[in-house]
Design goal:
With 753 residues, this protein is of the alpha+beta class. Helix content is 50%, strand content 10%. It has 36 helices and 15 strands. The strands form 4 sheets. Strands 12-11-10-9-15-14-13 form a 7-stranded antiparallel beta sheet. A 4-stranded antiparallel beta sheet has the order 3-4-5-6, with helices on one face. Strands 1-2 form a two-stranded antiparallel sheet. It is a peripheral membrane protein. It is found in: Cell membrane. InterPro entries: ARM-like, ARM-type_fold, Melted-like, PH-like_dom_sf, PH_domain.
């Protein structure tokens, strides 16, 4: 042992203890184990608890030794002596005494614990430390247990094998309230399932006591259990069902129920009515719910018919993103019980590209009334937006708002128009971008809201309703009128993904509802990023309200989720959601102008147009079916002609070469010269095109009023047309062809029946 350590520890010389820090780490690194053994003798002496001098000496020596071990990376060399001193603390009192101060031995244990367990990636050290750590979980104070749990979690990541033999001790620690260790159990389950399975029912009951991150780890464990030993969860299903209405948990619960239903469908069959309610409340979960119905439908013919009726109804009314799942589940049941549909049942699935029509044929076979299979309004499939926010998980995923083509829920079960057909036909549609119309509506509604706040609140049965409900109740006609006007100018997105919390960027997804044979967006979507979340949230609320004859309430699910999106975008720091929706009910004229300008900039109107006949925004091909024959004939050009291509991309040197281009099939073909005959060997593959844009204004000059760019995976092309009209023709044709190429690629990647 180094001479100075001998003096300080041998004579308990506190005055020399500080000199230890004047020594180089290299000087003392070989004598640290001896010093630790001497410290163990001192801390185990009978008078240590009352000897302040000895406690101070030990505290200083521990700090110096742990520092030297860390700096010289000699933890393996001294691990045995360090763990021995640590374990000796278990023989003494570790519980907090007096003024919430740690006992002397608790201080030693805490300092050594961090020095040892921060080396969780060193198996040799952890093999010595883990058994002692498990003892501290049962005997240490609360603070020590919490810190210990953090380190044990890291050990589970680096070397879970070291914890396997202590699985039951860790599980019991969790049940005693040490919830931090929940994150360890999923890593141990596959190697030691029996130690956890015997406590699983008690673990499920903890869900009500956990915070969101702790629930996440427990659900991970339950999902693994459901995959490997689903029968263990049979007694816990009722408890799990109570969490289905929690948007933070219902996705995980359904994953568990799906695994159980595949193993033991009869255990889940009794919960089908509740699952149906959850589907109405959270339409984005209907894909998983459909799979559960599909699994239960394999049980017997009675349940098969019941499940089929529900699945067929969903097929007719749900968002296209669920169609393939629904059809697969329906086919799975009818393949098992072929007598339900009778002969030639497989032909039903191939009779139409329209899922709605397939659903009607299935409904007829199943003797389901058409009114329950599909609802029409003025010849158009009833479209009801439901709003669902996915708050993301711990990895920082952003929330999502989805709009599903669904049957009306109980919350919105009335005529979608809010006015009858005659009223709609005779209504003089104002220009939604007109400042007169917007300011008139906004001023009147603001005035009425102010009067209401000044004491003219409605009395009677609804007097306890919220301000938003009263406000919308008095302005249903104005909201409907505004929607009838604005829907022809502004498309309604199918999905909204929150992208960037710093810049308040949302991503909007648009699809085509008709989904014809040559539809550009039946399996994919047009996306754009917007920095105007407030405007889109206003539009979403207007759309939701316009499709119901009853005023919405702040407590309604769809409104609550819009409010959550509002809060997520930090708009609540400017104004609360409710106040904004009351006092600025309609987007301002300048905001709508910005939205329209942005849609033009991203070439949205090249690919979509409003159909007066359908009352929907349809893609170019569904709006112009006569163009399909041209676009889909192999070798038949959609557009061709001369363009100038920029050859060298220097800031001040512009070299343009005239070439002949042909847009046909999935390619934009180059010609070597100006003639049609000299074909280039390197065409642009349209499926590889990322975007097509007009050259940005800041880069334009007098020679570039009609230039546009095509961005691929690894190259950018710059072209110039003969005039702006010709440039617009090329831009629209290229955008349409690119969309169709990507849609075709998506369809080929999807397995069809």
């Amino acid at each position: 042992m180094h001479q100075l350590f001998s003096i300080v520890l041998g004579q308990r010389d506190l005055s020399r203890a500080g000199d230890l820090f004047s020594l180089e780490d290299i000087e003392i690194k070989d004598s640290l184990s001896e010093a630790l053994e001497e410290m163990k003798k001192i801390s185990s002496s009978s008078d240590y608890l009352t000897n302040d001098n000895d406690q101070a000496v030990i505290e200083i020596c521990i700090t110096r030794i742990t520092t030297a071990i860390r700096e010289t990376n000699t933890i393996e060399q001294h691990a045995l002596a360090l763990v021995s001193l640590w374990e000796s603390c278990l023989e003494c009192n570790l519980k907090t005494e007096g003024k919430n101060e740690d006992t002397p031995h608790a201080k030693i244990a805490s300092d050594i614990m961090s020095s040892i367990l921060q080396n969780y990636n060193k198996p040799q050290v952890m093999a010595l430390a883990v058994p002692v750590a498990m003892k501290f979980l049962q005997r240490g104070n609360k603070e020590t247990c919490r810190n210990m749990s953090s380190y044990i979690s890291l050990v589970a990541i680096a070397k879970a094998d070291l914890l396997v033999n202590h699985t039951e001790a860790i599980t019991k620690s969790v049940l005693q309230g040490n919830f931090m260790l929940l994150r360890v159990l999923p890593s141990l389950y596959e190697q030691k399932p029996e130690s956890i399975n015997m406590h699983l029912t008690a673990l499920v009951e903890l869900l009500f006591s956990l915070d969101q991150s702790e629930q996440h780890h427990l659900f991970r464990l339950l999902q693994i259990t459901a995959k490997h030993y689903p029968e263990v969860l049979n007694n816990s299903l009722s408890s799990l069902m109570t969490h289905l209405h929690d948007p933070n948990q219902n996705d995980s619960v359904l994953t568990i129920l799906l695994e159980v239903s595949r193993s033991n469908p009869s255990a889940v069959a009794s919960f089908l009515p509740r699952l149906k309610e959850v589907g109405e409340e959270f339409p984005s979960l209907l894909g998983q719910i459909a799979k559960i119905y599909g699994a239960i439908g394999h049980t017997n013919e009675v349940l098969a018919r019941s499940c089929l009726a529900y699945l067929v109804t969903l097929l007719a009314n749900m968002d296209h993103t669920f169609h393939h799942v629904l059809l697969m589940e329906i086919k799975g049941i009818t393949d098992m019980f072929s007598n339900i549909l009778g002969a030639n049942s497989k032909d039903i699935y191939r009779m139409s590209n329209s899922f709605t029509y397939v659903a009607m044929l299935l409904g007829k076979k199943l003797e389901i009334s058409n009114s329950s299979v599909i609802r029409y309004w003025r010849g158009t499939l009833l479209k009801t937006p439901f709003f669902k926010i996915d708050n993301g998980k711990e990895n920082g995923e952003m929330p999502t708002v989805c709009f599903s083509e669904s049957a009306l829920s109980q919350e919105s079960c009335h005529s979608p128009s809010g006015v009858d057909d005659d009223t709609t036909e005779s209504f003089s549609t104002p220009n939604p971008c007109s400042s007169t119309f917007i300011m008139k509506c906004s001023t009147e509604m603001l005035s009425e809201s102010c009067q209401e706040n000044n004491g003219t609140m409605e009395k009677g049965p609804q007097e306890n309703r919220d301000k938003l409900w009263r406000h919308l109740k008095e302005n249903l006609t104005k909201v409907q009128a505004y929607y009838n006007a604005v829907k022809r100018k502004i498309p309604i997105p199918d999905q909204c993904t929150f992208e960037d919390s710093v810049r308040n960027v949302i991503k909007l997804h648009f699809t085509c509802p008709l989904k014809g044979h040559y539809c550009l967006y039946s399996k994919s979507s047009f996306t754009l990023n917007s920095r105007q979340p407030q405007v889109w949230i206003q539009i979403m609320l207007i759309v939701k309200q316009s499709l119901s004859t009853e005023p919405l309430s702040i407590s309604d699910t769809s409104v609550q989720l819009l409010k959550s999106l509002w809060d997520t975008t930090h708009l609540n720091s400017i104004c609360s959601f409710e106040s904004a929706m009351i006092h600025a009910a309609f987007p301002q004229n300048k905001d709508l102008d910005c939205v329209l300008k942005h849609l033009e900039e991203v070439r949205f109107f090249d690919l979509f147009g409003y159909s007066e006949e359908m009352g929907e925004w349809l893609c170019f091909m569904c709006n112009n079916p006569e163009k399909a024959n041209v676009l889909n004939q192999d070798g038949q050009p959609l557009i061709e002609g001369k363009l100038k291509e920029k050859q060298v991309r220097w800031k001040f040197i512009k070299r343009w070469k005239t070439r002949y281009f042909t847009l046909a099939g999935n390619q934009l073909l180059f010609r070597k010269g100006k003639s049609k005959d000299e074909v280039d060997d390197n065409p642009i593959e349209l499926s590889k095109v990322q975007s097509v844009k007009v050259v940005a204004k800041k880069r334009r000059d007098r020679s570039l009023p009609r230039a546009f760019e095509i961005f691929t995976d690894n190259k950018t092309y710059v072209f110039k047309a003969k005039d702006e009209k010709n440039a617009e023709e090329w831009l629209q044709c290229i955008n349409v062809a690119v969309a169709q190429a990507k849609e075709r690629e998506n369809r080929e990647a999807t397995t069809y029946l």
